[in-house]
Design goal:
Elements (H helix, E strand, L loop, with lengths): L2 H43 L1 H14 L7 H8 L2 H14 L3 H24 L17 H21 L10 H22 L3 H4 L26 E6 L5 H14 L7 E5 L6 H10 L5 E3 L2 H8 L6 E6 L2 E6 L7 H10 L1
Parallel strand pairs: 1-2, 2-3
Antiparallel strand pairs: 1-4, 4-5
Helix pairs in contact: 1-2, 1-4, 1-6, 1-7, 2-3, 2-11, 4-7, 5-6
């Protein structure tokens, strides 16, 4: 083989490797664009749920309680921003500018989920709203992978593949971003009064509420749901009454809900000493926060097909007769 043939072979090999990396980088850009788009759209569709996730992270990083509502309201714009970033990466608009933005955003997510994992928190990461629930540990590991994909896209995926977006495609993407902003405002601000109290209010449909330790779907059927904390004296005193309701004909099934993990010593001691005859499910810190915000506990709610019909606070707990009358009238 002559030197010219050898050099030509090396050029072809180098070009082939470079083309392969470019294709991999472009695929990583498209994949991460889709991830940002889906994550953004889930927040756009249910901004109230993301608001409560934000409040939990504000508590985690030690911000003063008075700042939580304002921070939560500001954070709901993250959904439209993520959707806009995802659209831009998918259509390959300004990748040299927006890929570093994606990397910075992922580093921030990585820091928050890492902090939640390190602190032992059981909160949901909130990345995909009610679509997928993941622990901080799971979210942290996924974020590491996604950061690697963004790094690959930034390194090799900034070329014009697919082709540069047409003006019509850019205009369509801009319209999509505008619709995301409008949807967020439409679905969030009419509920701003509800955020001043909690999600446990008559007329509110409880969405995105995952219960651990029980095979129960609150979206179907009727339930009496008691929110309680195992060390709470008032909560402990309420157990005999709830046990009585379990055996009372005509009343819906009773369900206890707490943020205490199923394997926690406090919950085990609560069950051993008080012998509750109703199932007890665990919700994340974020869900507990949105169900008890600015209220004490225990709280009792009557739910029908996921919609809150009536709520009783710890100082207005009904008698059996009052409860029967409320349910019969509801």
């Amino acid at each position: 083989m002559t030197q010219s043939q050898q050099a030509a072979g090396e050029v072809v090999t180098t070009r082939g490797a470079g083309d392969g990396l470019a294709m991999a980088g472009a695929a990583a850009r498209l994949l991460m664009g889709a991830v940002f788009l889906i994550a953004g759209l889930t927040k756009v569709w249910d901004p109230v749920l993301f608001y409560w996730e934000t409040v939990s992270y504000a508590e985690l990083i030690g911000l003063h309680r008075a700042t939580w509502p304002a921070l939560g309201r500001a954070a709901v714009v993250l959904g439209p921003l993520e959707a806009a970033l995802g659209l831009a990466l998918v259509v390959n608009w300004r990748p040299r500018l927006l890929l570093p933005v994606g990397v910075a955003l992922m580093v921030a997510f990585l820091a928050l989920t890492g902090l939640a994992w390190h602190s032992g928190s059981d909160m949901d990461c909130g990345c995909f709203g009610a679509l997928v629930e993941r622990t901080p540990q799971q979210a942290f590991l996924e974020d590491v992978v996604m950061l690697g994909l963004l790094g690959l896209a930034w390194w090799r995926g900034r070329g014009r593949w697919p082709a540069a977006p047409s003006p019509g495609l850019i205009q369509g993407a801009a319209l999509g971003v505008f619709l995301c902003l409008a949807t967020t405002a439409f679905r969030f601000y009419p509920e701003s009064g509800r955020l001043e109290s909690s999600d446990l209010q008559p007329g509110v449909r409880l969405t995105g509420l995952a219960l651990k330790g029980v095979d129960v779907s609150l979206q179907r059927g009727e339930y009496l749901v008691e929110l309680f904390n195992p060390p709470c004296t008032r909560c402990r005193r309420a157990v005999p009454k709830l046990n009585h309701w379990v055996d009372t004909p005509g009343l819906p099934p009773v369900l206890g809900v707490t943020m205490a993990p199923q394997d926690s010593p406090g919950l085990a001691e609560f069950k051993q000493q008080l012998r509750p005859r109703y199932p007890i499910g665990t919700v994340t810190v974020s869900d507990w926060r949105r169900l008890t915000w600015r209220h004490g506990y225990p709280r009792l709610a009557y739910l029908r097909d996921g919609v809150v019909q009536q709520v009783w606070e710890y100082n207005t707990m009904p008698s059996t007769r009052q409860l029967q009358a409320a349910i019969a009238g509801g």
